[in-house]
Structure formats: C-alpha cells, structure tokens
Amino acid sequence: MRWYMGCMGLRRMRWGLWRGCDERRTTRQAIMNVPPLPTLTEVKSAIDKFVATEDWGRHRALGTPQEFLTHVGSALGVLQRSFVLLVRPDVPDTSQRYYRLRIVEQPLNDGLISEYGPPPPAFAGYDRCSIAHHPVMYCSANPATTFHETLCSRKESKPVLYGYLSEWKVREGATVNITPFMFNELPENSDLRPLVKNVSKGLTDLLSEHYEQDQISGVVETMKYLSNMFIADNTRSISSFIAHSHLYANAPARPDMLLYPSIQIGLRRANFAIHPNSLFKLEMTKAFCFEIRGFKH
Questions:
Q1: Contact by Cβ (8 Å): 204, 25
Q2: pTM value?
Q3: How far apart are CA 151 and CA 201, in angstroms?
Q4: Cβ atoms within 10 A of the Cβ of 222, count?
Q5: Out of 31, 53, 172, 247, which residue is the most buried by the measure of CB atoms under 10 Å away?
C-alpha cells in the first residue's frame, strides 16, 4: 500500500512526496523537500496554547473564505508545521457503494442527477468538511449511517419532509486518491480500527528514515489531536479547514475523497467528503425518493 505525503506551510502548500507526482522518485529523494518538523515538546505546548486561547466557533464569521483560512492557519501556529497530508492512490473494489441523502422541505427535480450531488458553490457553507463557496459531496458507506448523519443534524421538525437517497460507485478502472483522516483512538467495536493502524504505520514509515523519533512523535501527536476535530460538534471550523486543505490542495495528487469517522453511529463507520471535480470518477447507480411525515428531532 503506497502512501504519499506533504506538509502544510502557513500560507501555501509545500509538498513532499506529492511534489511533481513522479512515481520514479524514491522516498529519500522526495521526503527531503519536507520542511523541518517541530519536536514533541513544541507540539504539546502548541496544543495547550490552542486549546486555551481559541474560540473555535467564531472562525466561521471571519469575512471571506481566504480570510477564514488565513486566520485558522495562523491560530494553528506550530501545529501547521507538523500537519501532514497523506494520500493513497487506490482502485477501489467495484462492489463498494457510497450513499448520499438529501432532506429538503420542497420536492426537487428528481430526474436531474445534479440534484443528488453536491450543492452549487453559491449555496455551500461552513460544515464538517467544507467552507463557504467550496462544496463537497458528503456520503457514507451504507444507508443507515447516511440517515443517522442527515436526520440527526436537522435543527427543526417539519410536518412533511422529502428525502432523496442516491447510491454511487467508482467507475470501472478509475483510480481514486484517498485520504483517511483518522489517527485517534476508536472504540473496540469500530470497523475503522484496522484502517487507523494502517494509516498510522504509513505515516511513521515515511518519516522514519529522515527524522528523529522526537519529531516523528510530534507529527503523530499533531495528527491525533487534529483527528479529534472531526468527532466533536464545536470544532467544525477546524475540521473544515483541515478537509479543505486536503480536498482543495493545489496539487495534481490531491485527494478525491477524505474519510473520517461518523459521530452519529459511535465512530464505528466512515463518512466520505468528495471533491465535486472527482465525480467524473463515480457514477450514480440508484436513486430513491420518499416522504418523511411527523419527523421530530
């Protein structure tokens, strides 16, 4: 399983193994482009400072998307120097399905495939993995997770709601760049634990030849801490910054999909945030339209 890695600069991407996306380059040649990393002590100090001083919820109101990104990047400080972007090119199993659910108050044009995809940029806002004017398509690996995620996030009850559930799969032979952002501890009954172990090993293996253990430990601590931003409700501003930094990275090997645990089902299954430009690698296979009556949150 081949992993590619890059590190975030404060205002721009500085790529390690992603730079040039040349398969012929060795790990040693490529990873030397990665900037120096902070130590574990520096990372722990930065986390303490970030926890003590930041009101995460207020970031959403900070002007333009670029102002938002600049402010959050500055707030992360040292953490951003050890914020690693990891991606794996993959040809997924064609039996894998991705489910997206839209719940709306008025019927949609159910004959248009675009109605089942991500929102137009003008309607995209700040959410778990998206920032204003930069949409993503949220999916889950099974319908039950999708229903939990979508219905439980609704703030209001309505007499009648309209549901549009779509099923998607990766096109035959398509290569998908995948980033699982999961480095934290998950429950024993989580289906994602083997993936977390694999991702963590891929990260440490890439770093081990060229960095001291203290710096590697700093990166691991950073990634564990930032992974927690995806599993709390008051940290969406930070998780959206992280997801945007991956999915909208200015690099040919940017991820098509970012994976993170589902809060609504106890971190046992994965959610997916998919870049709209990557939808040509997918096809919609089924759609279900239905009414929901008497739903109360």
A1: no
A2: 0.85
A3: 35
A4: 26
A5: 247
